[in-house]
Amino acid sequence: MAVVGRIARAHGIRGQVIVNSETDFPRERFRPGAEFFVNRTGRPDDIETLVVKTARFQQDRPVIAVEGVDDMNAAIKLAGVELRVPVEQLMPLPDGAFYRHDLIGCAVETRNGERVGVVAGVEGTFAGSRLVVDTSGGEVLVPLVDAICVEIDPASKRIVLDPPEGLLDLNRRPELKLENRRPELKLGRD
Fold first, then answer.
1. CA distances from 39 to 49, 140, 155 (A)
2. Helices and strands (H and E) in the chain: how many
């Protein structure tokens, strides 16, 4: 399952909610009849389906009504819920574009074969993303641009870098060394 949005808060008294969209296709994804899978309890076997009843956009954010949620009290209980869809239902991307969850777990190495680490996350927006790479010396931030990430192969779980001199040392966050990190802080929700 892939996260395509998170319910931010209730909106109004009739059970609508505002969604923080995490998709490049919000108008296609948040439309009447759309189904999302949610887990409100945290138990892995406790998945429920939410169906969009109505949808509109306010300042480019989806405002949706969900079947069975008819008042503000019910809508308030949805705040923070992640809206997920099966990976197979994700929209196709153009060549050279990747979903964040496809990059997480990729081994990162330099062009000369030196191992850098493993992608733990992707930060930023479409216009300015960066890889968060776990290394033996801590987290390293790597701009996700063609000039630096010269080869990205999610199928092989491999990313090859051609970093400018000093980039890997300059963007290191030593306080977040992999071995010192608490397990609950690791990524991998997708």
1. 9, 32, 28
2. 4, 13
> What Cα–Cα distance (Å) separates residue 138 from each residue in 109, 141, 176?
15, 10, 5
Rounded CA separation 168/147 (Å): 14
Class for domain 2-88, per CATH? mainly beta
Q: What is the pLDDT of residues 21-42, one digit of tens each?
A: 888 789 999 999 999 999 887 7
| Domain 100-185: which CATH number of 3.90.550.10, 2.50.20.10, 3.30.450.20, 2.30.30.240 | 2.30.30.240
**Beta strands 61-66; 115-125: pairing state:** unpaired
Q: pTM for the full model?
A: 0.66
Residue 6 to residue 30: CA distance in whole angstroms: 12
For residue 54, give both structure tokens: 């109505």
